[in-house]
Amino acid sequence: MMHHAMRYIRVLGPVFVVVALLNIVAARFDARIDLTSNQMYTLDIVSAQVFDLFAESDDGVVVTVYLSRDLPSPLHHTRERLDDLLQEYQQVSRGVLRYDIVDVSGVEGQAAEQARQDGCEEGALGERSAELLSVRTVFKCLVFKHGTRRQVISNLRITGQRGSDNLEFEVTRALYALGRERSKKIGFVTGLGGPASIPKFIPRARGVFEALYGDAIEPVEVDFSNPDKDLKEFDELDAVVLLNLSQEVSATQRVWLDRYLHHGGAIAWYQSATVPDEEKIKRLVEQLGPTDTLPALRRPAGTGLVEQMASYGVRHRQDLVLDRDTAMDVMLRTLRGRVQARNPAIFQASGLDRDVSFLRHRAFVTMPAPSSLEVLNHGRSSHEVRELVRTQSSAMRFDSPLNTMNYEGVLERLSKQGKQGEHVLMASVSGEFPLYYKGDTMPEGVSSGLFDKVEQGSGRLLIVGSGDFILPQSEFGYDEQLASQGQQLFFQSMEWLVQEDALTRLRDRQLTPFLGEVHPATQSRVQLLNIMLAPLGFLLVGYAMYLRRRRRSEEL
Questions:
Q1: How is the chain split into domains, by residue range?
Q2: For residue 284, with 0-12 CB atoms within 10 Å meaning exposed, 13-18 middle and 19 or more buried, which class applies?
Q3: 185-510 CATH choice from 3.30.70, 3.40.50, 3.30.565, 1.10.3470
Q4: Tens of pLDDT along 19-36?
Q5: Model pTM score
């Protein structure tokens, strides 16, 4: 026995020495490897690059965390998680960031009062015991300071589940807003109909932008109700949004849009071919009396922007695209009542340009009765035109749009012959835009002197063949769930428009990468391998244990 023991010591002794040395080296150097597929436990390069905003300043970034003690499960590890995360930020900041975690006991006392003075708010937290459910107020607050500027996450949204929380996004978003001298402003055109002209639209959009981007992006109103109004406010805007306009844009306003884009601005035009015909609907309601459903009568939008946008490289055809093969099952109202059916006007467009940030993690895009876009090749190298969303080859294009949003109208249209093939529903143009209005082409009554000495810059243009995809149309089958997906697409495209799409990359890190469809033959092979390899693995483990017991018996 002594001989066997000495033999094991001679064999295992060097192994123990190597392990001990590795532990000593690992203790002196902070290193780790993140083996997750999307690097969930490593700071993204976007988070490291945010400190470039503070490179030219002598002031550092100070982060103060106010956190209540004794948070219940599953929040009991919040302090450790924030400490680990902020340590990583501190390392990549090259000395710019330092932080402190303040333990707050209760809602009274010096720490709680200091938290309130810094802009923190108490949040309600429920605790369940065996006998009762109680609610207490806690602090989960982060305060970022840089010189005289500050950003506050007054009540950190955290569930305690690592797969659900995205603390890196919350911190980096605050740092982006802190490093900007001013907010980027997106001007929503009002006064010409469309959702943006609804009185509560801008305040609600401001709340969404604040929740998504803090103070980094701010929506403002641009009033187009006066056709001859001086629009010098364009100079302060980082982007202009035309959202499903129902009235014509005046000549003066079109010239201002042209000069703004030429100067290096960014414009997004979300437009359906038809819009609700409010006058006809009102007359019909007066004739029929009170009704629980408004008739979905529509008229041509008539914005006056088609030819101008075509000169930049994309023509809005103002037609109709349907696809029976990729149509979605929806609940809609028909002449026979509410039924579940496949509506070819609500289909999946899966031909996506995944190099664009807001389309990278999407499987498909859905819009109600969209129009197609024609990408025009003008032979110019000054700007680039890209097809962002395309239909499947099974889609049909019809020259005229729907006059009413009902299922019967869709079926009637399908009975006719349309043009089958892949059709573009969303396109972008980026680069230097030539002036559409200049010299002899200047509209009558518009003074060209207002726009002298306009320097050319690099602009962005986004055109979408639908402006109805952000609001539900339940009677047509486009319900709240589909509209919420459309709203996500809308707000994320705003990030691309003002070139703040780095935040989209961080927010999407929590999402499982889309792998696409798996061929049935591949599925069968994988299932067969699972059936074969799983028992084989157990057999090998059992055989190894048998050999080990047999060897020990022989030694004894």
A1: 45-179, 185-510, 522-556
A2: middle
A3: 3.40.50
A4: 556 566 555 555 555 555
A5: 0.77
